[in-house]
Amino acid sequence: MRISTEDKILSNGGPGSGKGTQCEKIVAKYGYTHLSSGDLLRAEVASGSERGKQLQATMQKGELVPLDTVLEMIKEAMIAKADVSKGYLIDGYPREVKQGEEFEKKIGAPALLLYVDAKAETMVKRLMKRGETSGRADDNEETIKKRLDLYYKATEPVIAYYEKSGIVRKINSELPVDEVFAIVEKAIDELK
Ligand SMILES: Nc1ncnc2c1ncn2[C@@H]1O[C@H](COP(=O)(O)OP(=O)(O)O)[C@@H](O)[C@H]1O
Ligand SMILES: Nc1ncnc2c1ncn2[C@H]1C[C@H](O)[C@@H](COP(=O)(O)OP(=O)(O)O)O1
Ligand SMILES: [Mg+2]
């Protein structure tokens, strides 16, 4: 499956930076198909499948699930929406450079990477707050710390990897949600 470049936007950034929040607003305004790797994985866990049980254990530890699993899920979800999609907004993928390389090989190059950026301190605060109601097994102090460490080690290099192709737009996510979205809108509108 190859999907044209202009039909793919990536949303990346640390845990709790605000990717999901901005993606929701993008979907409401632009009608893209939102595919969050974390949501896809949590749906698999919720299904109670054997594969889901293994994923659950990995996610609870704040680690990355195997590349093949997550790429296969994204690909399947893209195919399922191919007829109706006005373009895809892929959230939380790639989380390591290797995932980016495989994505380019199997699906194609993206047009834009929204780099949703917030300070570590801000992300921890937001995740602890989210944890009060999210019911997510990974929104606890210990796992948050591991996710942050892994983010700086494995995922930040992804941003540098895409900088080379000039598609990265850094979004200051320290601002209130609507102000963040104004920056996001500008980045997307520049594509047109
Ligand atoms: N710009 C913002 N200002 C304040 N709180 C925010 C902002 N963006 C997101 N949040 C809050 O931070 C938490 C994490 O946001 P979320 O979108 O789930 O992040 P991610 O998908 O990157 O983990 C949520 O509880 C959300 O309401
Ligand atoms: N692309 C990917 N590769 C490997 N593991 C992934 C993944 N996307 C998500 N996961 C796993 C590990 C993450 O810690 C967990 C939660 O992901 P998420 O919902 O995208 O987190 P958040 O939105 O808080 O950044 O799921
Ligand atoms: Mg999210």
UniProtKB/TrEMBL annotation:
Binding-site residues, AMP: 37, 42, 63-65, 92-95, 99, 136, 147
Catalysis performed (reactions): dAMP + ATP = dADP + ADP; GTP + UDP = UTP + GDP; a ribonucleoside 5'-diphosphate + ATP = a ribonucleoside 5'-triphosphate + ADP; thiamine diphosphate + ADP = thiamine triphosphate + AMP
Family, per entry: Belongs to the adenylate kinase family. AK1 subfamily.
HAMAP family xref list: Adenylate_kinase_Adk (MF_00235), Adenylate_kinase_AK1 (MF_03171)
PANTHER family named in the record: NUCLEOTIDE KINASE
GO biological process, one term: ATP metabolic process
Complex formation: Monomer.
Region NMPbind: start-end pairs: 36-65
Record keyword Transmembrane present: no
Source organism per UniProt: Cyprinus carpio (Common carp)
Class in the EC hierarchy, top level: transferase
Region (LID): 129-139
Binding-site positions, ATP: 16-21, 130, 175
EC number(s) recorded for this UniProt protein: 2.7.4.3, 2.7.4.6
Subcellular location(s) per record: Cytoplasm
Domain-level remarks: Consists of three domains, a large central CORE domain and two small peripheral domains, NMPbind and LID, which undergo movements during catalysis. The LID domain closes over the site of phosphoryl transfer upon ATP binding. Assembling and dissambling the active center during each catalytic cycle provides an effective means to prevent ATP hydrolysis.
Taxonomy, superkingdom: Eukaryota
GO CC, any one term: cytoplasm
Function: Catalyzes the reversible transfer of the terminal phosphate group between ATP and AMP. Also displays broad nucleoside diphosphate kinase activity. Plays an important role in cellular energy homeostasis and in adenine nucleotide metabolism. Also catalyzes at a very low rate the synthesis of thiamine triphosphate (ThTP) from thiamine diphosphate (ThDP) and ADP.
Keyword line: ATP-binding, Cytoplasm, Kinase, Nucleotide-binding, Transferase
Record's protein name: Adenylate kinase isoenzyme 1
SUPFAM superfamilies noted in UniProt: P-loop containing nucleoside triphosphate hydrolases
CDD domains (alphabetical): ADK
One GO MF term attached to the UniProt entry: ATP binding
